[in-house]
Design brief:
Pfam families: SBDS_N. This is DUF1960-domain-containing protein. By secondary structure, the protein is α+β, with helices and mostly antiparallel strands. The protein has a single domain, classed as Hypothetical 12.0 Kda Protein In Nam8-gar1 Intergenic Region, Chain: A. The chain has three helices and seven strands, in the order ββαβααββββ. The strands form two sheets. A four-stranded antiparallel beta sheet has the order 3-2-1-4. Strand 1 and strand 2 form a beta hairpin. The longest helix is centred in the last third of the chain and has 11 residues. The C terminus is likely disordered.
Length: about 120
């Protein structure tokens, strides 16, 4: 079985705006694709979903409306928007792909919290 590929958010942030638009992709494949556009997008992106965060990297992300995509990218066609983000975006939040476990400690709230599928909750 092959090792999981790293996954990153490729983020495009328009000038003078807090909004960010991003896709989940594989960084090595993005770099290859930037040099050779004949590589299929199915090998580059994890999904054909474009996400928007109106508060930068904070808060919730959702899917932008077609009108929003038209206003920002002059198109609402998903492949054209994804191409633009991959070409002009930057890598953020590099992590191992599809690993559903992380630990977080918030000192003001007490002990660490885990999202491990087998042990969701507070740990001692």
């Amino acid at each position: 079985m092959a090792a999981p590929q790293e996954e990153v958010r490729v983020i495009y942030k328009p000038k003078n705006s807090r909004e960010e638009y991003f896709v989940f992709a594989y960084p090595d494949e993005v770099l290859r694709w930037r040099k050779d556009k004949s590589i299929p997008l199915t090998e580059v992106v994890q999904t054909f979903e474009v996400y928007e965060s109106s508060n930068g990297s904070e808060g919730f992300a959702g899917r932008p409306s077609k009108q929003t995509l038209e206003n920002v990218f002059s198109t609402s066609k998903d492949t054209d928007v994804i191409n633009y983000i991959l070409e002009n975006g930057t890598f953020h939040n590099q992590r191992r792909g599809n690993i559903k476990e992380y630990n977080a400690t918030n000192v003001s709230r007490g002990k660490g919290v885990s999202t491990n599928e087998n042990a969701i909750g507070i740990h001692n």
